[in-house]
Design brief:
Blueprint lengths: L1 H21 L4 E13 L5 E13 L4 E15 L2 E3 L3 E14 L4 E16 L2 E17 L4 E10 L9 E11 L1
Antiparallel strand pairs: 1-2, 1-9, 2-3, 3-4, 3-5, 5-6, 6-7, 7-8, 8-9
Amino acid sequence: MKSKTMALAVLGVSLLPSLASAQPLSTVYLGGGIGKSELRDVSDVEADVAKLYGGVQLSDNLAFETEWIGMDDFDIDGFALDDVETDTVNLSVVFSHSLSERFSLLAKGGVHYTELDFSGGDSENSGASLGLGASYDINPAFGIRAEYQRLYNATDFNEDFELYSVGVRFRF
């Protein structure tokens, strides 16, 4: 199961250079973040989130992005579940709108593939992903980003993960 996630992540990242070379003015970026997730419609289920992403800014308002999202240290109503973790690969189109020279709002939509591993077995699910966020450029190469993201149909019970994260982004 981990090999499928790794293969999708490698495929997504391997597309970045070809997309960058197709657009002479495009910019490649990499980033990462940390945060929390909640299982929508299930009370008191949360987990720690780590994410790594890379993308190609095709124009001022449009980018293609791939990301890996890992969730672990699940907590259900105050009880820790150390044997539960997820790996997600997400491919998105990102639309951004600058409010000033340094501050932008973003919206993204795409598809995800999620593997959920737990002591009683594991599951694989895929579905749509949507997100909203904001970014602030400290300088042209470095910025910070805050996001809300929802992974639809992420469990065998058609439940959605809601993610909240803050991180950094580096442009090349």
